[in-house]
Amino acid sequence: MFVLGIDPGLTRCGYGAVRRGADASLQAVAAGVIETEPHEDLARRLGQLQAELEVLLDELEPQVVVVERVFFQTNVRTAMSVAQASGLALAAAARRGIPVEQLTSNEVKLALTGYGAATKEQVQSMVVERLGLRGTLRPPDVADALALAITHLTAAGLRAAVAASVAR
Known about the structure:
Layout: E1 2-7, E2 12-20, E3 26-35, H1 42-60, E4 64-68, H2 76-95, E5 100-103, H3 105-113, H4 120-131, H5 140-167
Helix pairs in contact: 1-2, 3-5, 4-5
């Protein structure tokens, strides 16, 4: 299975594509950030982000897209821009018929580290370990996006088992 994780943001939108091999190993296929200039007009920034997300989806052709679910933050302005970026990612995937899942950061932290309030550094460390990478992933948006994809892939077996059990 091939999954694209997206950590939405207007200034920096992280993405990370992970493939699960036949032996259940995980491999990072692509990772990075889409950046927009904070001094630019909002509509222009959203247009740029939308165009780059669409190119990314067309190039990678993921089987599933996992987007971090927006939680209300103390900074309403930040929450609004994250929600706008999230909506663009959801719509771009939906237009292509790609299944979309949303996970909160706490769900990802719990699945990846065993602790729902893990630090960014702990998440980065687990992403590096799970994917067999070296060094630190920068900016943190890249690790967050890869963590979304890893969480989806590692939970897929459990979801299938639960669905099969319910079907009986």
